[in-house]
Amino acid sequence: MAPVGSYEALHAARKAGADSIYFGIEQLNMRAKSSINFTLDDLAEISKICTDNGLKSYITLNTVMYDHDMQLMRSIVNKAKEANISAIIAADHSVMAYANKIGVPLHISTQANISNIETVEFYSAFADVMVMARELSLMQVADITREIVKRGITGPSGKLVRVEIFAHGALCMAISGKCYLSLHSNFSSANRGACVQNCRREYVVTDEEGNELLVDNEYIMSAKDLCTIDFLDQIINAGVEVIKIEGRGRSSDYVYTTTKAYREAIDSIAEGTYSKDKVTKWKNDLETVFNRGFWDGYYLGRKMGEWSEVYGSKATKRKVFLGSGVNYFKNIKVGEFKLETKSLKVGDEIIITGPTTGIIKTYVKELRLNDTQVDTVEKGDRFSMPIEEIVRPSDKLYKIEIADD
Fold this sequence. Notes:
The protein is of the alpha/beta class. The protein has two domains: 2-173 and 222-295, Aldolase class I (TIM Barrel, Alpha-Beta Barrel); 317-402, Elongation Factor Tu (Ef-tu), domain 3 (Beta Barrel). The protein is 26% helix and 25% strand. The protein contains ten helices and 22 strands. The protein has helices at residues 7-16, 43-52, 70-82, 93-102, 117-123, 138-151, 181-186, 232-237, 252-271, 276-286, and strands spanning 2-3, 20-24, 56-61, 87-90, 106-108, 129-131, 162-169, 204-206, 212-214, 225-227, 242-245, 294-295, 317-329, 334-339, 343-345, 349-354, 358-363, 367-369, 372-374, 376-378, 382-386, 396-402. The strands form four sheets. Strands 1, 2, 3, 4, 5, 6, 7, 10, 11 and 12 form a ten-stranded mixed sheet that branches. An eight-stranded antiparallel sheet has the order 17-16-22-13-14-21-18-19. It has a two-stranded antiparallel sheet with strand order 8-9.
């Protein structure tokens, strides 16, 4: 399951081999502040793209809900049913009750903090799929999946409840993301999707006498990102059926790279070709896009303490904006671009992104300027190069560079 915060990310997930996508609508989702959220008017188009490409679609409707949210909540669930969205992901009982009442399939969000089999049994009256609390160890997850089978716990569909876990992406310092730090300091509630991420900052400790100590080397509330690709086989063996990637606030190249890596890993496990060498390659790929460094989370029984030592991303590569698409000549598979800044040369790694294109990752094989083959183009040039996929005027062109240390 891939995260989608834009049409670019949706098409990137599709191209990378996702089975399903999840996204937010309006302001009632946990990434209301950090991602470009879709509106009710987008639902029909999202559903069509997913249906045409064999993807399941899930709406995150998982914030704390107040009385004044009820009308909007019901509108979203109604529209989801009308658009044939696959399911709603919810944590608040009001959403669960209403979705259940009008017959919209439901998934239970990690915000519900499901940590034991009794809670699974309770929620089975509402949902076929449940996201476990992020604080569980893999052993605890396996105990829950075995007990589901043993007790024959079924959801509304009559099928056994399926377990979902987060496998990759940002981890919050709080229990299953339920944090009040942002609300306390900025009156901007994380539980309403408006976290300002002040936990990610560097802090100075001051004692009662006014002496200050800079907390060195680590951002002591900023956890490293979760990465499970090197023990994904153990996750599958634990009975987990849905692997979820975090990152609705991240870019389309992040969505593409992470989804592709986990797609390949899952297929490799099924084929019996999963290996250390492949894991090394996938990890190297994952390190090229936004990350705060990686750790195993709680799954292998480690205590919390894997803090990031930098502010922001530790990605080994970065993308630099160059320009925009102008035209595409289908017969010869050549794209025309306007270089708005920097320069571009033969051999450079590039990314092209757009609302319909999603993402294209490739290398510059040839450049033409005024119908003459050249090695380099500069700012202001209108040039062309071979591109296998259609390029649109709304597309943006980026060059991929090695990130500075």
